[in-house]
Each structure stands twice: as C-alpha cells, then as structure tokens.
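Our consortium's second objective concerns turning raw sequence data into structural hypotheses that experimental partners can test. To show how far this objective has progressed, the report includes one record in full. It was chosen at random from the queue rather than selected for favorable results. The single chain below, 202 residues long, was entered without modification.
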Amino acid sequence: EIINAFNTQKITPTFNKTYDTANSLLQAESDLKNLLTTKDLKRMIPNGLINKPNWVINTMRNSRADKFLSNLKLSTWKNDNFIEFLQTNENNTINWLKTKEGSIEWHKKFYALLSLDNTQNKNRYNTQSYAVILANIPLILTTDLQYMRGSECYFKSQNEQTGYALTFAHPDLYKDANPVIKKTLTTLGVREVNEEALIENI
C-alpha cells in the first residue's frame, strides 16, 4: 500500500531536501519551518516522541500533494508548541537563543512569528500576538548580544542621550522601520527613551 510505504520507508520528502519515513516527520506552518532547524527541534521535542525530528516538505495548501500528506502519519507541531518551549524554562530558552549567534535576520523572523498580526492565526492563548504572553521572558537581543526582558530595554535613536545606564534593543532589528518587528518589540515591553526613562536610570 502506498500510504504505508510513505509512513515506514524513507521516501517522504523533507523540508531540507532529504527523505525520511513520514512517521518520523513533523508538519507545521511554513514560518515555523523557516525559523527552526532540525537541531532546534532536537532541543524542543520531548525525548522519545521522535528520535530524529525533521520537517516534512512544504506544499501548497489544498493541493494534491497537501491532501496526500494529510493521509500520512505525520506529527503536528504548532506555533503553540514552540511558545510552550519558550515559556517552560527561561535558562533553556536563553541558551537556545544564544546558539543563533546574534543573527539579525534570524531574530527578525523570530520576532515576526511572535507578532502573528494575521487574524487567521488563531491560537489557544486567545490573542493575536504571542508577544503579549511572553513579555516577562528575556527575549530581546541587545546591542551587546545578550538577552533581556523588554521592560528592561529601550529603542536606540540617533539623538540618544549619553551618560545613562540604558540597555538598548539591537538597533539593526528595527533600523529599516519594519512596522511588524517594532510592534512586536513594543508589545514585549521595549520603550522609547523619554524623560521618565532617563530619570529612572540616573
């Protein structure tokens, strides 16, 4: 039977252009597949669930290939599962983020996923933005490539005041005025520098 063959033999195409058994592959939204590597998945998937987790190939929604994949024994890993990982252990989250070595492009994709500005992206947290529920976790990449809570960080401007002990979100994240990224950082708690902030940090 064809379905059984794809489930148990290494003939199902993967996201990284290899082949594996369908019962060892994960299905997810394309933005999550583009964000997380197989090494990331090994950190996040509970031991014993899948030994060598990998993404299944992307397909066009409702295409023949998509309908065929829906008949296979693929495990589903949703954005909600990723958010659970971020929430479960703060140290694990920070250590994982550090493996990204301060990559600005990767962090932009990360913050874009947290925004979920598309109202079609429903989630069990009953909010359009995951950033709302992650504000207390150190997810902000700073100018010195550390991670801080948004409430501890500020947006850096050209007219930045000197002589104050302020921590800035990395300016390369928002210097191109991407409204989605800046909105996510704001939702996570990052603020503009104002008189109140300067007084707080005297």
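The partners drew two points from this record. The first helix runs from residue 2 to 8. The longest strand covers residues 25-27. Both points have been shared with the crystallography group to help prioritize constructs.
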